[in-house]
Amino acid sequence: MLTISSIAADALAYGMVLFVISIGLSVTMGLMKVVNLAHGAFAMIGGYIASYMVQQMGMPFGIGLLIAVAGTILIAIPLERLLYRRIYGASDLTQVLMTIGITFAIIGLANFIFGPTLKTIPLPSQLQGPVNLGFRSIAAHKIFAAAVGVVVAGALWFLIERTPFGVRLRASVDDAPMAGALGVKTSWVYAVSFAIAIGLAALGGVVGAQLLPVEPYYALRYMVTFLVVVSVGGAGSIPGALLAALLLGAVNTAGRYYVPEYGEFFFYAAVIAIVSIFPNGLLGRAK
Amino acid sequence: MTDTALSTTPVQPVATPTQRPFMRDLFAVGVIVVIAVAGFFLLPTNLALLTHIVAVMLLVLSLDLVTGYAGVATLGHAALYGAGAYAAGIAATKFGIVDPIAMLGIGAVGGALVGLLSSAVILRGHGLSQLVLSIAVVQLVREAANKASGWTGGSDGLSGIAPTPLLGLFRFDLYGRTAFIMAVVLLILVFIALRIIVRSPFGMLCRGIKEDKVRVRAMGAPVYTTLVKLYVISGAVAGLGGALAAVTTKVVGLDSVSFEMSAEAMVMLVLGGTGQLFGAMLGTLVFIWFEDMVSTINPFHWLTIIGALLVIVVLFAPKGFMGAGNALIKALQRRSGGAK
């Protein structure tokens, strides 16, 4: 029984981290129709900034987290202006290739600046050590990761479904020329959505640094996982991404506990089965 | 430049390539031979690298078939290459089939089989789901190869491949001369075969599917089975590449079935230019050549450079080196025509 509950705790934390990072990708892919393979690279940049701020500059974890999110967005805005804007509406392959190019360049630069070693982000004392839940104790940072996931899911849902900005965003997605004709500044809406997506990537990169350690190949190593979560959940769907992240997190964690010698075999077998049956993802809109 | 200068210039008739496909193919084969001969004599110590380039060229050519001609977006094509490599390697180490030609044949069959199987999965998706399915296929094959370490050597790699002399006459020497010549001959044969295939009615049908699937179906042509057939051909070519690598390097590693390899193959194809076969070879040559040069200094500089290059090509030269080269030649012809 001990294993089942500890698998469940690990799966929940891992799934929530996957969700926080992937939901940003789901937004760019589902709402803005950009296959952004550099998404993982932005999560990595967030992790690097937080690590530098907390470890080298001695800042508190919370401040480091905020600076990481803001700094990553600042880095991403010129990229959106100069590069991404040119590939809105281009073919999947074009988008994949350009964003792979950006990913390669960021990996090279990250290694040049920070070196090839793993970077850690020291946790504040409140998040260290186990928390007793009565029936068993769970590492505090895992609970924190899960809580962040819940907050992100709720906030995004509120933003998209219940605010004037959400209305403009959904209008721009459904029919950009018509939304523009009605006075919605679509390019501004896209830029803000992109910034939110990148900010979420950075947030996930920092919060998940205990589970997905920050190093230069982070951008390529976990990118496939994020892409898979979005595809299984259905691009643009918040509940879909949550469901897919938790499901795939559970499959992966259970696989690592019970049949470690198979590596990620069952993870990808599950992906093939789900995507073959639901080509638009579990909760995606039919195209 | 004045009007009189223009009018006195005799206009050079330029044969458009599409009008004389046979001459163009002959020219292309000539270019391959010239580059191969130059490489053989100018870089006698680097023949192993050149042979590796030829093996990867076969993979990228095979990718060009499905992506450049039929428009299937895949980031998992190394599964076919790795299947060929492992098929040839296992045949040699476990079944004692050590004749190099037979190993190449087995590799082609292995690649074609995995091409058939993976097409059943990959063709189910479109757009994003197709990309994800193709990645999942290559990762699944890799995990399977890792698990079946009794057959594949797992993460240690499959070693102990000892091919007999080629045709019973030419030993695989230390400098890799035999291996390189065999590789180039194989490349030329595959190139000619692919030229014939892409120009056949079957090849035209594939291009039609890329342009407009719905219309091809409305004409009464089978879309799905055509793509499956193309995938089998593509798998055979990629399998040949993998088997060539297995025969010439005498080891097969897990990196031959990896997402990274698949993504790099796609990058090479796009750098060179899709849908024209020659672009696939050019892109591979340039990519691996520069990779070898730059990564001896620092492997991460290489990643930065290739990343920046990829962004530039996608934004400013979407037809790759081949497209940029053609445009440059045309511009120069106009310029020299006007300046004289």
Secondary structure: elements and pairs:
The complex is a heterodimer of chains A (287) and B (340).
Chain A: H1 2-30, H2 39-56, H3 61-87, H4 92-114, E1 130-132, E2 137-139, H5 140-162, H6 164-174, H7 176-181, H8 186-207, H9 218-221, H10 223-233, H11 238-258, H12 265-277
Antiparallel strand pairs in A: 1-2
Helix pairs in contact in A: 1-5, 1-8, 1-10, 1-11, 2-3, 2-4, 2-8, 3-8, 5-6, 6-8, 10-11, 11-12
Chain B: H1 3-8, H2 21-42, H3 47-69, H4 78-94, H5 100-122, H6 128-147, H7 149-152, H8 177-199, H9 201-211, H10 213-218, H11 223-249, H12 259-272, H13 278-295, H14 299-316, H15 320-339
Helix pairs in contact in B: 2-8, 3-8, 3-11, 3-12, 3-13, 4-5, 4-11, 5-11, 8-11, 9-11, 12-13, 12-15, 13-14
Describe this structure in words.
The complex is a heterodimer of chains A (287) and B (340). Chain A is mostly helical. Chain A has helices spanning 2-30, 39-56, 61-87, 92-114, 140-162, 164-174, 176-181, 186-207, 218-221, 223-233, 238-258, 265-277, and strands at 130-132, 137-139. In chain A, helix 1 packs across helix 10 (223-233), helix 2 runs antiparallel to helix 3 and helix 2 runs parallel beside helix 4. Chain A is globular, with a radius of gyration of 19 Å. Chain B is mostly helical. In chain B, helix 3 (47-69) packs antiparallel against helix 11 and helix 3 crosses helix 13. At the A-B interface, helix 3, helix 4, helix 10 and helix 12 of A face helix 6, helix 12 and helix 14 of B.
Fill in the keyword field for this structure.
heterodimer, A: 287 residues, mainly alpha, two-stranded antiparallel sheet, 12 helices, 2% strand, B: 340 residues, 74% helix, globular, disordered N terminus
